[in-house]
Amino acid sequence: MSNYLNGDKGSIIIHSSSTPSNIITLTEANASSVTDSNSIKFSPFQNGGLNYIVDSLATEDSGRSVDGMMHIQWILSRARKLEIQLPPCTFAYYSAIMNRVLGRKYYVTFIDPVTNTEMTINVYTSNGKGNLYSGVVRNGLIQGATFNAIELKGET
Known about the structure:
By secondary structure, this protein is mainly beta. The strands form two sheets. Strands 1, 2, 3, 4, 7, 8, 9, 10 and 11 form a nine-stranded mixed sheet that branches. Strands 5-6 form a two-stranded antiparallel ribbon. A hairpin with a 5-residue loop joins strand 5 and strand 6. The longest helix is centred in the middle third of the chain and has 11 residues. It is elongated. The N terminus is likely disordered.
């Protein structure tokens, strides 16, 4: 699977197993024909379409001792959360992605901005949203559609 993103560092692949297979680049034209067996490759919205957050969680027993020394017991370290914004899209395009991610566990392959390397992580999506417009306004496109991809297991 190496270098599938050659020259296209902005792309994201959503897939159901740890290695993408049957990769299809999602377009408006093929959105309604995508099946669960496809790995979907798409580019987030150009301006701020991928927000990257890294969180670490410590136990409640962590803190400073009387001598001022900090003691931390990590529960989870460097867990990634991606907030992905889709480009303005049709209902079929939106549906093809949201039906694959909402309330599911899946894998995302992307370029990690911290390490500048291709990375695949196991994630889940708890919510998604978008501004829906009629056919009269903005050509009936969904704009500002976003969803989060939260890593199930960070580094320990």
